């Protein structure tokens, strides 16, 4: 089936609409970061950088460490941006732009998020580098997509539905990390369920001036249990990456630099050092 010009927008130079990338610009291992400035903090460890492109908040560097080709791209904040980035990365590798048809042979990308996060458990100290075993979305992104749950995901979702049933208007979704990436890049790291919120303030239980409609939100999420699983941290992209990656046939893993303790009301004094440790760890394990 030919994909219409309004469904898949290609720029006059042949690049994808938002990311401004050509199909040959993307490596099969992709690191995502939220902050556009963090792209250079990752690529400075490359042996060579063969491409630098940017449009809006989407900055991309592609290069090599040894013989390993890598792409690092900034997504900006939130799962609305993840919707753009994941769909356009998939289009770049799995759609023939000339015929506007899906390729016969599909490519499965390895997508690794290096992001910052706040811990919601008191025994997860600031400075921890952890891997998300599951992403739990509290946003609406996956209400717009059809996707299949594994039996384990269905089992956990029964507990999620029971625990969060008092929050009106929210339909959570849950997806596991890509198993090969979790066993490789995430090997030996602390793990847990990462909750993904649709905002930074009230949607993450923060109270500044506007009244919070879900009082005690942090206590609600840190008391969740499904067997031995618990929610460990809170951020704004992981669940969207996991769910869309699975729907599109890619592997995904979120590596979280814990910069804040939401239960102890603390924020790190050296956030850049913690993020840099996470970057080095991921690159060492990829390469």
What is the number of E strands? 14
What would the principal axes of the Cα set say about the shape? globular
Given the structure, what is the number of helices? 7
**How far apart, in Å, are the first and last alpha carbons?**
38 Å
Q: Please write the string of helix (H) and strand (E) elements.
A: EHEEEHEEEEHEHEHEEHEEH
What do the pLDDT scores average to?
97
How helical, in percent, are the residues? 25-40%
- Uncertain spans: none
Please characterize this protein's 3D structure.
This protein has seven helices and 14 strands. The protein is an alpha/beta fold and 287 residues long. A five-stranded mixed β-barrel has the order 7-12-10-8-13. Strands 5-6 form a two-stranded antiparallel sheet. Helix 2 (79-94) packs parallel to helix 6. The longest helix has 16 residues, at 79-94.
Give a quick set of tags describing it.
single chain; 287 residues; alpha/beta; two-stranded antiparallel sheet; 7 helices
Overview in brief:
Helix content is 26%, strand content 29%. It has 287 residues and is α/β, with parallel strands linked by helices.
Compile the SSE list and pairings.
Layout: E1 29-33, H1 38-43, E2 48-55, E3 58-65, E4 68-74, H2 79-94, E5 95-96, E6 101-102, E7 110-119, E8 129-137, H3 151-163, E9 173-176, H4 179-184, E10 191-196, H5 217-222, E11 225-226, E12 229-235, H6 238-248, E13 251-261, E14 266-267, H7 271-286
Parallel strand pairs: 1-4, 1-7, 7-13, 8-10, 10-12
Antiparallel strand pairs: 2-3, 3-4, 5-6, 7-12, 8-9, 8-13, 11-12, 13-14
Helix pairs in contact: 2-6
């Amino acid at each position: 089936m030919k994909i219409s010009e309004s469904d898949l927008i290609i720029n006059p130079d042949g690049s994808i609409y938002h990311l401004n990338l050509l199909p040959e610009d993307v490596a099969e291992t992709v690191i995502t970061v939220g902050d556009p400035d963090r792209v250079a903090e990752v690529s400075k460890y490359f042996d060579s950088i063969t491409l630098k492109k940017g449009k809006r908040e989407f900055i991309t560097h592609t290069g090599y460490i040894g013989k390993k080709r890598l792409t690092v791209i900034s997504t900006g904040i939130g799962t609305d941006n993840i919707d753009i980035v994941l769909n356009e990365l998939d289009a770049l590798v799995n759609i023939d732009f000339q015929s506007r048809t899906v390729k016969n042979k599909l490519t499965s990308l390895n997508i690794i998020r290096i992001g910052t996060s706040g811990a919601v458990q008191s025994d997860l100290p600031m400075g921890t580098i952890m891997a998300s075993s599951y992403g739990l979305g509290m946003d609406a992104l996956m209400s717009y997509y059809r996707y299949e749950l594994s039996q384990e995901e269905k089992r956990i979702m029964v507990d999620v539905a029971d625990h969060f049933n008092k929050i009106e208007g929210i339909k959570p979704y849950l997806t596991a990390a890509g198993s090969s990436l979790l066993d490789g890049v995430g090997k030996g790291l602390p793990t847990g369920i990462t909750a993904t919120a649709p905002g930074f303030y009230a949607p993450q239980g923060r109270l500044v001036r506007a009244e919070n409609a879900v009082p005690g939100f942090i206590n609600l999420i840190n008391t969740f249990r499904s067997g031995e699983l618990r929610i460990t941290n809170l951020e704004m992209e992981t669940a969207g990456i996991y769910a869309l990656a699975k729907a599109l046939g890619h592997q995904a893993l979120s590596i979280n630099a814990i910069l804040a303790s939401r239960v102890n009301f603390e924020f790190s004094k050296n956030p850049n050092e913690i993020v840099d440790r996470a970057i080095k760890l991921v690159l060492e394990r990829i390469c």
